[in-house]
Design brief:
Largest sheet: 8 strands, parallel, barrel
Strand order of the largest sheet: 1-2-3-4-5-7-10-13
Oligomer: single chain
Structural class: alpha/beta
Strand content: 15-25%
Bound molecules: 4-nitrophenyl beta-D-glucopyranoside
Number of strands: 15
Distance between the termini: 24 Å
């Protein structure tokens, strides 16, 4: 019960968990150190012409060697939690079978240092660095990948639980690693599959979550919490009247039918299957049961709105965002702070979810240096400030949101944008690995300290 706050003061609940997030391939570097295997992102980024400046994650933020000083930065920020991910090929170089103890040891060191600093580790098991050997066997097109993910999740969650980790997420952003990786081809492995193949692959991805959820549960203490971090399309009403809100509620469920809705309901919606017709995926009742097994919390990565309006035929219609729609520096990152009101609100209302974390929110912005060498990322401050106001409003209206993680602690390897887009609260000079806290870091530190939007 989150009763100890005054809704009128922009205050967050007293036990609210403030954090920051990163992911293994984006920050670790050390890509061939201590027996780490090759991931699809190594292969993709090493192939010339895929990514601006041919940037890759070979070194990234070198967090593999600098985690101690990076954790000192977390302490400076005053955050209570750090969301990181484990690199599958660091732990299982061949994707299955033999465990690389030296790889696991890195995460044990990281977790021990977090505990020493009084920071709670939130561990994501799959943030897109699929072992290349598994891609060679079809990757997410192959049902076996879902089983292999679960086997890796069992080993890793057991080791992390032994190290004292109590919070686990199976996968990060189902839509991104399936669609960007296999439909548009902008992410690794860079394929462009048709609708039928995508429907089947999406099914294996949610199955990967479901099988991993069971595997983690079997290997961690009963009081550990296990969920996922997903990025549902954040259906948002253009106008806040009853009719538009209802259209957005329908949209939130249907736009995410093959991902979060399938996981929350253990079935695909009728509309989804009808739209696909002969391209619908093959699935069994047992699979749907595994996919729909209850999670302890739902993690939402929320960046941009999908505006929705009523439609007589299908109940809702998505309003396209034209080229002049306001955006942050990444072209996909349109600005609409209300989505951080509606996404947790609908998640709680539609499925009765009792525990929600915002596992990512943040933005690429211009990092201007002022005369004294300060990084004046004013746009990022405004973005986070406006989104957090909406989140506070959602909590005041009853959404059970327990915590919020800024993406990201520091600038890092932004996938197909390489190092050309920065999301950090802390600036990283990649030539020297020097870290410089930005204006947004100072802003976020005061939000955390005061427990309210300043
Ligand atoms: C998320 N889109 O990715 C990821 O979880 C992070 O690893 C990433 O760095 C962060 O957001 C910023 O991009 C996304 O095209 C990538 O809509 C692409 C999209 C959304 C999220």
């Amino acid at each position: 019960p989150q009763t100890h706050f005054a809704p009128s003061s922009q205050q967050f609940p007293s036990e609210f968990l403030w954090g920051t997030a990163t992911a293994s391939y984006q920050v670790e570097g050390a890509w061939n150190v201590d027996g780490r295997g090759v991931s699809i992102w190594d292969t993709f980024s090493h192939k010339p012409g895929q990514i601006p400046n041919n940037d890759n994650g070979d070194i990234a933020d070198d967090e593999f060697h600098r985690y101690k000083s990076d954790i000192a930065m977390l302490r400076e920020l005053g955050v209570k939690a750090y969301r990181f991910s484990v690199s599958w090929p660091r732990v299982m170089p061949n994707g299955t079978g033999a465990v690389n103890q030296k790889g696991l040891d890195y995460y044990k060191r990281l977790v021990a240092a977090l505990h020493e600093a009084g920071i709670e580790p939130y561990c994501t098991l799959y943030h897109w660095d699929l072992p290349q050997v598994l891609q060679d066997k079809g990757g997410w097109q192959n049902r076996d990948t879902a089983e292999h993910l679960a086997a890796y999740a069992a080993v890793t969650s057991r080791a992390m639980a032994d190290a004292g980790v109590h919070r686990f997420m199976t996968v990060n952003e189902l839509r991104t690693f399936t669609e960007n990786g296999y439909k548009t081809g902008t992410h690794a492995p860079g394929l462009k599959l048709d609708r039928k193949a995508m429907a089947q692959l999406n099914h294996y991805a949610v199955l990967g979550h479901g099988l991993s959820l069971a595997a983690v549960r079997a290997n961690v203490p009963h009081d550990a919490l296990v969920g996922l971090a997903d990025n549902p399309n954040a259906a948002t009403p253009v106008i806040n009247d009853a009719e538009h809100i209802e259209a957005a509620r329908i949209g939130f469920r249907e736009e995410n039918a093959q991902y979060l809705t399938a996981i929350m309901e253990g079935r695909y919606t009728d509309l989804y299957l009808r739209k696909l017709g002969a391209d619908a995926p093959h699935f069994t009742d047992a699979e749907m049961k595994a996919i729909g097994a209850p999670v302890d919390f739902v993690g939402l990565n929320i960046y941009q709105p999908t505006y929705v309006t009523p439609d007589a035929a299908s109940g809702y219609k998505v309003i396209p965002q034209g080229p002049t729609f306001p955006r942050m520096l990444s072209p996909w990152l349109t600005i609409g702070p209300e989505c951080l009101y509606w996404a947790p609100t609908f998640t709680a209302q539609i499925w009765g979810v009792k525990s929600i974390y915002i596992t990512e929110n943040g933005a690429s912005a211009e990092d201007r240096l002022d005369a004294s060498g300060q990084v004046m990322d004013v746009d990022r401050v405004m973005y986070i400030r406006n989104y957090l106001s909406q989140l506070q409003r959602a909590i005041a209206d009853g959404a059970p949101v327990r915590g919020y993680f800024v993406w990201s602690l520091m600038d890092n390897y932004e996938w197909n944008d390489g190092y050309s887009k920065r999301f950090g609260l802390v600036y990283v000079d990649f030539a020297t690995q020097k870290r410089i806290p930005k204006l947004s870091a100072r802003f976020y530190r005061s939000v955390v300290k005061e427990n309210r939007v300043i």
